[in-house]
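FW: tagging you since you asked about this chain on Friday. Here's the raw sequence from the shared folder, copied in full. Didn't touch anything.
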Amino acid sequence: MAPPPQFQRSSSPSQPSGKSEISDLKLQLRQLAGSRAPGADDAKRELFKKVISHMTVGVDVSSLFSEMVMCSATSDIVLKKMCYLYVGNYAKGNPDLALLTINFLQRDCRDEDPMIRGLALRSLCSLRVTNLVEYLVGPLGSGLKDPNAYVRTVAAMGVLKLYHISASACVDADFPSMLKRLMLNDPDSQVVANCLSSLQEIWSAEANTSEEAAREREALLSKPLVYHLLNRIKEFNEWAQCLILDLISNYIPSDNDEIFDIMNLLEDRLQHANGAVVLGTIKVFLHLTLSMADVHQQVYERIKAPLLTLMSSGSPEQSYAVLSHLHLLVMRAPVLFSSDYKHFYCQYSEPSYVKKLKLEMLTAIANESNTYEIVTELCEYAANVDVSIAREAIRAVGKIALQQYDVNAIVDRLLQFLEMEKDYVTAETLVLVKDLLRKYPQWSHDCIAVVGNISSKNVQEPKAKSALIWMLGEYSQDMPEAPYILENLIDNWDDEHSSEVRLHLLTAVMKCFFKRPPETQNALGAALAAGLADFRQDVHDRALFYYRLLQYDESTAERVVNPPKQAVSVFADTQSSELKDRIFDEFNSLSVIYQKPSYMFTGKEHRGLTDISEELGNLSVEAQPAAEALPAQIYEANDVDLLLSTSEKEEVRGPVNNSSAYRAPDYDSTTAALVSSQVPLEADLSIPGLPAYNPQVSSAIDDLLGLGLSVAPTPAPPPLALNPKAALDPGSFQRKWSQLAISSSQEFCIEPRAVVALATPQTLLRHMQGHHIQCIASGGQPPSFKFFFYAQRAGQPPSFFLVECLVNSSSARVQVKIKADDGAAAGDFSALFQAALSKFGE
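HL: got it, structure written out here
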């Protein structure tokens, strides 16, 4: 019987045109099932290719499962592979369908062709269906005893897959012991490697509950096994060699002679073409000689040439990996690589991530003998077309200067950068000049002479502008134009959106005032008034602190703001020595690439705040006794977790209304002044419109210095009436939350008594109910809690107010976001909500 004609191809073979195409595929597969006519296998191949193509792009073709299994009765190994791929993809999600594959897979496990036996066994172990475990034990036992090495290789890894499906079935069948015998006696190196890999994982997992498994795990590091593997290491492929080298790096030799024996056996691995093998061998050498200082130093000399060769040959990705390991070694022994600095010069064709790492290497190996050459090279990179590399090069020059190498020449080079008239070069140079002046104050005269000629209008980056402002305040006595430059910056206060710049500006104008009071009095008054009116809490607090300090005593204020300073001898290291040692212990792993120990990117307890906040997603609708709950708060169980992602759905950000504990006057940059220019420094300092300082009444300074809590005063509730019987289901709440923009956003502190009461979050919900504000969902663990409230305005129109409230009990701070049907009423509701919250805990 001739094979049926193939159907017409669709215009897009990777996407089926609809159910009709899947039906056509099913029909044609069914017609070809069991057919042995000439050309039937070729027709099956074309159909299988289409099915796999659809499956690859995410089209559900699980309805063809039976037909695919029926068509698998063939000796064509290509068809077998495609069928196994299809079955493995759909078996786990369709356990009932997976049962249909058992017969033909078990039959293939007994096929005469070892390739088919191996493929069938691999597919059978990859089904990962718990109720099919009993069908795996027999074929695995046969596979471990198979005369063909490929089948034994597959079976060794299949045991590990079985262990992850059912550990008890794997151990009860005595598969670990069989793997151990294979590892010690099998002539095929790949079988030995797979047995070793499986046993390491199985015994490591079992060691926590079984003493026998713990002993077996320790036996993997026994001298006979280690030497058995070392003597055969040349037979293994690169992956297996890395596995063995990692095992040997944990082996503890009995004496120094054994250390030298192992190093002699592995000497030729340093010339291996594979970079992973070379790095694995280096790890063994370094760990074995840690207790032998002289030999350890010689190991550094020995491994230097292989590492430099690997770095300069191969792909950029390999160069980066090797450079990361070199960087770690340079941190431990910089002198050994100081003569090879030219290997770390950047090449034009290298990607930026390799260049950046090379710049770090040049910084690390710089010393008295090579600083001039390295700095000369780095200065060339400052004109690089790649702006990020130019920035890194300038930073590298500054870091070398901070290491006290050839400071005179480097300062001259940095000052020349300021003449290049490139914004990013000027910005990076200003930051470095600031750091240099903190460490080498004696260079202030030369630096200030150049910095004074820079226009603040040409410096836009916040860090660079902050550095310039710091120098204007610190060295205002040496810069004639300093007060006027600061005054101009203060006049443009509203145009500066960076909190960092505003904070530096407040401090700089204070310093300048104590050094040149007549010229700075107006500027200081304007700065303090602008700072007090600032909606950013840190800027407001610093301005208020300076204002209160000046009211208290001018001489004390000068000692606080502008004390005598000592040169900074050492800048803080970003990594502790303990972390560096941990990374060194994990040599030849991702820890070196990430520059952090593995537990910092694998353990849940070390995830960032963002990751943890996502887990506040355990929000659930509050379950309360029916007698206490209002009708609107009793929901069905399927409403749970409806609000988990609402905070992520916010796309519209409204204006921020920051609530402060202090009432600041409106800022007018044209009229604000602290004192008249005729008043001497010791005169009474006051600003019209600002509250007078009363130490007996105001405790604001306590909070500003971290001595207490700043509590927002209880505002008078506005005339806004709420509906006591408001009702809103979770689905409607979620739709409204995703549609409405934020009408008000606040951050304020709560009373200590409220923090204590928050130990039982239910009390807050009942408290807010008493003010006709209902809670629809809540969650979190101490100290972070998250609540969603809603309320409805009484009368017409009956608009809703939606609230997201984040409470941190450790800092006693509350963040509130309000969305409203009527945005004009959001302000009144915000005040009412804050007033209700301020009474919590009474």
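FW: Residues 1-17, 605-717 have pLDDT under 50 and may be disordered.
HL: agreed, and The longest strand covers residues 784-792.
FW: great, closing this out.
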